[in-house]
Amino acid sequence: NRKALLQQFERYEREVQQEHPEMLYANVLATAYTRLAQKLGTDEDAQAAEVLGKSVGKWPAFPDTVAATQGLGKHYKLIPLSNVDRESFQRTLDGPLAGCNFDAIYTAQDIGSYKPDIRNFHYLLEHVKEDFEVEKAQLLHVAQSLYHDHVPAKKVELTSVWVDRK
């Protein structure tokens, strides 16, 4: 069923991210797609894998995301800690998040690892201090993923808010 298929894909995505933390997210998606196709015994479609890898900028934003981001941006510094590469994030900014402005964007490509790797959170803390003179106690990490965001945020004692999208 669809849920089981998505869970298998997510498992391969995590596996690829751990094996190749330097790999661009578009390639992570394509590789995970290929591994899932192999597991299912279907033909590996290199073109479909590439299309999936480049699809990030086409993923729709949640209905409340743009307005919330624009509103919060009037009062707070907004700094995504993203598990994608810069090009994919830019496609998202040009597409579903058009009109949203961020003070900085820290990507897995910049850091050289993917969340939930604790290095991503150390990078965040170090750079917001250097770039904005903001201390950990002044940060609020807002995210949906318990696995990718909230568990490692807790490890570095970063206050976080869970956005439950399910």
From TrEMBL:
InterPro entries in the record: HAD-like_sf, HAD_sf, S-2-haloacid_dehalogenase
Keyword Hydrolase applies: yes
Domain of life: Eukaryota
Sequence intervals crossing the membrane: none
Keywords from the named record: Hydrolase
Signal peptide feature range: none
SUPFAM superfamilies registered for this protein in UniProt: HAD-like (SSF56784)
Name the UniProt record assigns to this protein: Haloacid dehalogenase
Record organism: Cryomyces antarcticus
Origin organism lineage: Eukaryota, Fungi, Dikarya, Ascomycota, Pezizomycotina
